Amino acid sequence: MRLSNYFMPTLKETPTEAQIVSHRLMLRAGMVRQASAGIYSWLPLGLRVLRKIEQIVREEQDRAGAQEVLMPTIQSADLWRESGRYDDYGKEMLRIVDRHNRDMLYGPTNEELITEIFRNSVKSYRDLPKNLYHIQWKFRDEVRPRFGVMRGREFLMKDAYSFDLDYDSAKTSYNKMFVAYLRTYARMGLKAIPMAADTGPIGGDLSHEFIILADTGESAIFCHNDYLESDVLAKDADYGGDLQAIVDSWTKLYAATDEKHDQAAFEAEVPEDKRVERRGIEVGHIFYFGDKYSKPLGAEVVTPDGKQAPVLMGSYGIGVSRLVGGIIEASHDENGIIWPESVAPYKVGLINLRAGDADCVNACDGAYASLNAAGVEVLYDDRDLGAGAKFAGMDLIGLPWQLVIGPRGLKNGVVELKNRKSGEREELTLNAAINKLAG
Amino acid sequence: MRLSNYFMPTLKETPTEAQIVSHRLMLRAGMVRQASAGIYSWLPLGLRVLRKIEQIVREEQDRAGAQEVLMPTIQSADLWRESGRYDDYGKEMLRIVDRHNRDMLYGPTNEELITEIFRNSVKSYRDLPKNLYHIQWKFRDEVRPRFGVMRGREFLMKDAYSFDLDYDSAKTSYNKMFVAYLRTYARMGLKAIPMAADTGPIGGDLSHEFIILADTGESAIFCHNDYLESDVLAKDADYGGDLQAIVDSWTKLYAATDEKHDQAAFEAEVPEDKRVERRGIEVGHIFYFGDKYSKPLGAEVVTPDGKQAPVLMGSYGIGVSRLVGGIIEASHDENGIIWPESVAPYKVGLINLRAGDADCVNACDGAYASLNAAGVEVLYDDRDLGAGAKFAGMDLIGLPWQLVIGPRGLKNGVVELKNRKSGEREELTLNAAINKLAG
């Protein structure tokens, strides 16, 4: 994409309404615009990141055996009356009355609807286990929406729901999602640590929040330092096999948010030099809740011995739009965003240092064509602007690589390749640069 | 995907609530389930089709130079008051009051919001032309939702908005979308004919509906038979060049829906043996409306001579979820759906005729692995069911190819390959079948 044509309305000023760095940078980089309080429009650059995150989530859900569906945003209130949550949910639920005076709502989550789909379709234990997920916009009418897409009202969430006949099978389903979540965040360049979370009246220990470390995080977190140094993807997951060992390795050491933190246990279990106290952002939550919804909604299957039993369910959420902000919180510097390559809107920013110079234009146009032909995503700054503005703009939007082509270098047969994260610059021939980026 | 594990709840009975064939077939094939009146959940098989259609729309929008954004579903009523449409829109608009008593609405369309984004970001004619589109769920509170996804309340629409400085440039933008629409529908195996549509108070001739022929269509249509025989994709589009000749070739002959039909003109312009009178379904609408929104909303740019002028806009809609039904209306037989390959949920249905037979299982498992490795999308009926049920099920869901492997054929070293559309069956070796499908 050529910047001369791209709709990327960057801002020079720091927007005053933005309290945290990811919100400021997303506005400044032209990734999003607020439509109304806590509701955002995604502009081209931001949408590309959102879609890449969504796709990683999708691939890892699919790999773990979950199947994608898509439930609507608007639901009937009747189902929520069946589960008893219509009255409980409070003001965060956006309630709507349609033209026929039926009570509707904008789904803040989908336990009821997926349970209804299940109960109408699946009748036998032979069709279990199942895990159905969707990636859909949700609405929670937060009283004070803030932090940009990190705590918006309309947000994109992946929510999966597992259905099993018995607890052991449900635990296997839970473990698959546990491991899928580790892989999902790792692929985004994030270190997300599972931390025990509330199970409410369900009890047991099958509830974990996945927390990434960031100074601007909403919760204090306490954990064993080994978790910060463990590599996730090295452990290849066989979803057909037993995943308990992986889950155990990520749950045996101390890790808790302030909600569940126990200072005495922390000090007893973790040697002093291994104690980490930081701040964190929740980017996912997995939760086993048994027959909490299947029972009131009557989602039963025939068991092997011919009886009827409510299915046992779990739910598994990932805040897809929130992750865009979360990744920026975890990965930026004073000049702007630093995208991990897997979620970067483009891999390469190509900078023409002198837009009026025929040699520069030729070299840049050629590099742009070669990189595109090699399947490398390039954002090409072909505008007639000063070098300083171009450098600052590229640093701001944080593409992993900057390929800088100017008249002086061309005379010596070289271009400059800069790594946004390390800041390292390298002079090399244009061909060598293209080969390196396409490799 | 193995059917033994797939969430595809097909129905044996024909659902009584479904009045038209696409609705019946989508329910029977387990593609969708109604969540509430006019609101559907997309199950895995249906979602795959929806996503393929969406992706074709996206690719052709991108090719034509439009840039993808994503606006939220929930909008503030204030903008619609600025444009004057808040009171005009009537009961089809789903109106919402949030917890702070602010008037909100579920966007039925996005002229206001995109105009606001534009006015806050673009200030100069130098940044024109622009075309921004998004593919997002909309809500129209139809008084009588019916025909399944063809006339639902919550529906997925692609809407693009062009911004130009003057009429000539706006017409160029219009022509690009006109041609992009021809290509889009052609890629889905549809013959969509552009028909002049109302321009309302704007006047001029820049308003076309794209109509596909189907016996169950909502409108009567009248057109010159040559349009049914013209090939669209043969004319390769150069979006940087002049597209007027292509547009002219698709507008010079008579084509009108009953709304705009003029029987005298039809008879005068079209020889009797070329007159086509059929029924049709609207699957897209493109419309130039000048400064209708930019003026009241103050979306102005600086012109080359230093003045301020409202931008001239057009909008371009495609009913993405409606197309799923529309394609089925246009392509089915008494046994079920006949998917064009470009939008088929899977390319191949692999049928194991004897699930208990080791040779059959081996051959089928091998074929499944080979086809997957070759990137061919396969739905594998590995269930322990009779041949009749498997054949009927595959015909119902309408995958383009059926690869049938049974004990008798294997003894002779052959399998059967059936083309769903033509019904032709061919006996060949398994390797030859795989090569043919992977080619």
TrEMBL record, chains A, B:
GO terms for biological process: prolyl-tRNA aminoacylation. One of its GO terms (cellular component) is cytosol. It is found in: Cytoplasm. Residues 33-340 form the Aminoacyl-transfer RNA synthetases class-II family profile domain. InterPro entries: aa-tRNA-synt_IIb, aa-tRNA-synth_II, aa-tRNA-synth_II/BPL/LPL, Anticodon-bd, Anticodon-bd_dom_sf, Pro-tRNA-ligase_IIa, Pro-tRNA-synth_IIa_bac-type, Pro-tRNA_synthetase. It catalyses: tRNA(Pro) + L-proline + ATP = L-prolyl-tRNA(Pro) + AMP + diphosphate. It comes from the Bacteria. GO terms for molecular function: ATP binding; proline-tRNA ligase activity. Homodimer. Catalyzes the attachment of proline to tRNA(Pro) in a two-step reaction: proline is first activated by ATP to form Pro-AMP and then transferred to the acceptor end of tRNA(Pro). Belongs to the class-II aminoacyl-tRNA synthetase family. ProS type 2 subfamily. This is Proline--tRNA ligase. It comes from Denitrobaculum tricleocarpae.
